[in-house]
Amino acid sequence: MYNLATAAAAAGINRSTVLRAIKGGRLSAQRDETGSWCIDPAEFHRVFPPLATPATNAQQAEQRDATDLLVAELRKVIEDLRADRDRCRSDSDRWQAQSDHWRTAFENTQRLLPPPQQHGATTAATEATKPAPLKLVRRRVRWWGWKRAG
User: Fold this and answer.
1) What pLDDT shows up at residue 121?
2) For the chain, what are the domain ranges?
């Protein structure tokens, strides 16, 4: 059982706050034979959360081990990400070199082709390969010709 002082210390609050909670009906407590307040710890911590206790050496060591494991895992992830980055860079360099190769090959092919001719410029070879123009034969059709069909 808590008295006012131990209850206040357990929650990290002032004794007057505990007494106001008892008088206000938020917290139930009884008086003992000497007239001091007796407060059930479960009832007290229902209203006021317990003060965080400092971690023991075993808890601190456990937290340190968990932190070390997390740091090791994160370092592994960073290492994997760096390897992926380096692989992407080497792939990019390889694709760039291949692109340069094909561009050079295309430019060399363009140099082998004859230059494009201007519109309207003709040569003897193109004159010989031209087809003869078609003669259009126009037939006279009257607009009422559809009436006469038949």
Assistant:
1) 59
2) 4-47, 54-101
